[in-house]
Design a protein that fits this description.
heterodimer; A: 2 domains; seven-stranded antiparallel sheet; 18 helices; about 30% helix; globular; B: alpha/beta; nine-stranded mixed sheet; two-stranded antiparallel ribbon
């Protein structure tokens, strides 16, 4: 059929415990969830999707150019209309001609994307990237919101590889009202008719599994997890044991991941080395997909391991009040005074820099400029620039922590949600430089302490491995105190700000090795 | 080229004045400036005007120059609005000096104004921040407090400059401002106050940041051909220098100095044919405490990296070797953006004409003003000199 050749998974760093909910509400409505992941104010399904996608590509050692088919799945994409696969594809530097599909409207969207990838690989496509990311949201006093977590998974699929998809089936039956969000509404809700909801869940899951060609005997089961109990109630219907469900469960630590629930469980099962995995999703409406993944034994492949890069750990605890702030539930939105105006067309012109860190090499003096625009920062020549993609690693040259009152108004809402942040100038390296840099322990200090000597190194040898260019960047993913002059950083892509209803995404920095 | 002379200068109070308009404040400054001319000066004498304003709030973005000069009766006089962010009216003074030196005008008004207190703090921040590099620097989450804090972080890492050094700038400037009846924050503060204020952009706390202000200031620049009509104690514009640079800090070769200030100072000293040690006082651009320390180094008051020791030595206090910001500076006197550069010239005029009251420097001959736009995208320096005593 097709095979998974690389796995990526990601969850935000923040966690809130069921006890924190009990302290706030007197009770907690998400059975079996002990803690869950909470996206920070600058994260959404698109940025989490980017985090997982870059990791899957890294794991598969696949050049983004080779991807000819992309799917992005989320029950809550940040835009209800506007295809985000164009932006996601640009963020992970896919070819403009790669096929793109968006899947939404259901917690089953993640496995629908996987399903479509299998069809595509059976047809003309050669290398597919499936990205599922989600952060469900309900009314604050509703079980859907208590369970709601955040996370993402991504898979590179090719026609052959270590983790073969050997069987699949689907099943649908009408069960309206178990979980829905009407057009124009922000919160997902359900009628909460317990037995009816359970029946919808078990009937569809049982139906999908029954439709498989061979009865599966999995050692791990990645099953849809709207809370921490429902998956186990479907064990009988799916014909599997609760131990196998627990083996791939992420809901207890990460919460309900919506359309990313089954993909993240599948990713962890593959990363943990399970060899026979049943993945069964459920989406309200209702329907289910069952997919059987078999990791090739060593007789069939020289190396049975499935390459995986996952970042699902998080240990930054939130109080319930911080949780409400972080999610923007108790903040009042952008201030009325207006923010810096960068028009959408101007922003679009900077996308090569915002997404891919594209600097320019001056054709006169070989120095780097960022952004590659206007006269050369070094020699002042009005020369052409050769585009150079920076490596996304570097060193902090100057930094401050912006406290309440110090933020520009367009960041006031973000600061109300997530508090103080670091704002830095960082020296980003070219691809060749990062290796040398890691070996050269005291370079960071020298570079920050004496920029003119850094400048000289630049001039003396383009290939010396010490080439950097300075860019301003906001800190994310860590306490602002973790950013200081001389420290190593890496870049990621986050929400920068929203103006005129259009969210602009671009690079931010976090401490290296996070 | 002809010599240019400063024959009068005056300002409104700086502060928050809900009952005033930008025009009424400008009129107060204009009247104070003409009244300060020893032999008097009438509106009809003025040949040309340069007016600095950023236009905070967008109240009169276009033709904001004529909007104030016609209000003070300069009908028909060519008026040009000068915009270089916080250095707007410092550059207006420079334009006035150029007009006089070129021979195109004999009596030129250089002024500035701003109203910043009549809008929400978010709206104010919008208008202040948009003088920085918007697309990259601002959208990395900084306004000027953040950018200056970044400079401070490097100065501290590189030279061992401390938070206490920053706080000492506030203590000194408040001590001076307490002696200036025009000052917005005319009260003294203790080192402890200045150390323990809420953080705005680490390492800068509230006492390391200037306030937002309403205010206006005017200076009168005349040619050597007419100076005798206005005064018997001429103050010559001995040196003028200016420079510009990348708007964004991240594109500069240094974060621990302001190259535009260095260029401006070099040019001004050369024209005045002096070394920095010939100065008796200086008004420098202390929008943030670190900016005053950087100015010590950029203007040659000390070697690079030694500004912390200089403030600690007390040399820049009133009564010290080189008093800096006797007016209270932007920190205590206030910072109505477009008025600030001309306001510094008001202090220079008061000191050199012996009218600085309780903060008078003892018989000064020569003073400097230093006005910076943004984080150093533009800077202008003037050296003023009491003529009689120099030639003697």
């Amino acid at each position: 059929m097709a095979a998974i050749t690389g796995v990526g998974a990601y969850a935000p760093r923040f966690r809130i415990t069921s006890e924190a909910f009990e302290d706030a509400w007197g009770q907690f409505h998400a059975a079996g969830v002990t803690q869950k992941a909470v996206p920070s104010a600058d994260e959404d399904a698109l940025t989490m999707g980017y985090e997982a996608a870059t990791r899957a590509l890294e794991a598969a050692e696949t050049d983004p150019d080779e991807i000819d088919w992309l799917a992005f799945a989320s029950s809550r994409p940040p835009t209800a209309e506007e295809d985000l696969t164009a932006r996601l594809g640009a963020m992970v530097t896919l070819s403009e001609s790669a096929t793109r599909h968006a899947f939404t409207g259901s917690t089953r969207a993640g496995t629908r994307a996987l399903w479509a990838a299998l069809d595509a690989l059976e047809a003309d496509s050669t290398t597919a990237l499936v990205v599922a990311a989600d952060a469900p949201q309900g009314d604050p006093d509703d079980g859907i919101d208590h369970a709601a977590g955040a996370g993402s998974a991504a898979f590179v699929l090719e026609r052959e590889g270590p983790a073969e998809i050997v069987d699949r089936a689907e099943y649908s039956a009408p069960y309206p009202g178990t979980r829905f969000r009407n057009a124009g509404e922000d919160e997902t809700q359900g009628l909460g008719i317990t037995q009816y909801d359970r029946r919808a869940f078990t009937e569809t899951i049982g139906g999908a599994v029954a439709g498989l060609e061979d009865e599966p005997t999995p050692d791990a089961v990645a099953i849809q997890a709207p809370d921490g109990k429902l998956p186990y109630r479907a064990a009988g219907a799916a014909g599997v044991g609760t131990e196998e469900i627990r083996a791939a469960a992420t809901v207890h630590e990460l919460g309900d991941l919506g359309a990313a629930s089954v993909p993240v469980s599948l990713a962890t099962a593959l990363a943990d080395g399970y060899e026979s995995i049943l993945a069964v999703s459920h989406g309200s409406g209702a329907g289910a997909d069952a997919v059987v993944v078999s990791v090739a034994s060593e007789t069939r492949q020289s190396d049975g391991d499935v390459p995986a890069v996952t970042a699902l750990e998080g240990d930054d605890p939130l109080t319930y009040a911080e949780y409400l702030r972080q999610r923007g539930i108790v903040t009042t939105g952008p201030p009325s005074g207006g923010g810096a105006y960068v028009s959408v067309p101007s922003w679009r012109r900077s996308i090569p820099q915002r997404y891919r860190l594209e600097a320019g090499r001056c054709s006169e003096c070989d120095a780097l400029s960022f952004p590659p625009d206007g006269a050369c920062d070094d020699c002042g020549a009005l020369a052409d620039y050769e585009p150079i993609e920076l490596a996304g690693e570097g060193t902090i040259e100057a930094v401050t922590t912006i406290s309440q009152g110090g933020a520009p108004p367009e960041f006031a809402e973000q600061q109300a949600q997530s508090g103080d942040y670091a704002a830095a100038i960082v020296a980003l390296e070219t691809d060749g430089a990062s290796e040398t840099h890691r070996k050269d322990g005291d370079h960071a200090e020298r570079n920050s302490a004496d920029r003119s000597s850094g400048q000289r190194q630049r001039e003396e040898g383009v290939d010396s491995g010490d080439e950097t260019v300075s860019v301003p960047a906001m800190g994310t993913d860590a306490d602002p105190a973790d950013f200081s002059v001389g420290e190593r950083i890496e870049t990621t892509i986050r929400r920068i700000y929203t103006q005129e209803g259009v969210t602009r995404y671009g690079f931010k920095i976090r401490p290296a090795g996070e | 080229m002809r010599d240019a002379y400063l024959v009068g200068a005056g300002q409104s109070d700086y502060g928050a004045f809900p009952a005033e308009s930008y025009r009424s404040l400008f009129r107060t400054a204009f009247d104070a400036a003409t009244d300060s001319v020893p032999k008097g000066l009438e509106a009809g004498d003025v040949d040309e005007a340069f007016v600095g304003t950023l236009g905070v709030g967008g109240r009169q973005l276009g033709l904001s120059g004529p909007a104030v000069t016609e209000h003070v009766g300069l009908d028909g006089v060519p008026t040009t609005r000068v915009e270089n962010a916080c250095a707007a009216s410092g550059f207006a003074v420079r334009q006035a000096v150029q007009a006089v030196k070129s021979g195109m005008a004999d009596v030129v008004l250089a002024g500035g104004f701003e109203i910043m207190s009549d809008m929400s703090s978010d709206a104010t921040k919008y208008w202040l921040g948009v003088s920085g590099e918007t697309e990259w620097e601002r959208l990395s989450g900084t306004t000027f407090s953040g950018v200056y804090a970044q400079m401070a972080s490097v100065h501290m890492a590189q030279y061992g400059t401390t938070r206490e050094h920053l706080s000492r700038v506030a203590v000194k400037n408040h001590a001076n401002g307490a002696k200036n009846p025009h000052a917005q924050l005319g009260f003294e503060c203790s080192l402890e106050d200045a150390q323990s204020a809420p953080v705005v952009a680490d390492p800068l706390n509230l006492y390391h940041c200037c306030p937002t202000s309403d205010g206006a200031a005017c200076a009168l620049i005349v040619s050597e051909d007419v100076v005798d009509d206005y005064t018997d104690d001429p103050i010559r514009v001995a040196g003028v220098g200016a420079g510009s640079d990348t708007v964004g800090l991240f594109q500069r070769d240094t974060y621990t100095g302001v190259p535009a200030s260095q260029r401006a100072a070099e040019t001004a000293y050369e024209m005045a044919d002096i070394e920095p040690d010939a100065l008796d006082f200086a008004e420098v651009h202390d929008c943030f405490a670190i900016a005053e320390l950087l100015a010590y180094e950029d203007l040659g008051f000390c070697e690079p990296g030694e500004a912390g020791q200089l403030i600690e030595s007390g040399a820049t206090e009133l009564g010290g070797e080189l008093p800096v910001n006797t007016s209270g500076g932007l920190k205590s006197k206030g910072h109505p953006i477009g008025a600030t550069g001309a306001g510094q010239v008001v202090e220079a005029y008061k000191q050199l004409s012996g009218n600085a009251g309780a903060r008078q420097v003892e018989t000064p001959t020569r003073g400097l003003t230093h006005n910076v736009g943004g984080s150093g995208g533009a800077a202008v320096v003037h050296v003023f000199e009491k003529e009689g005593e120099v030639s003697a």
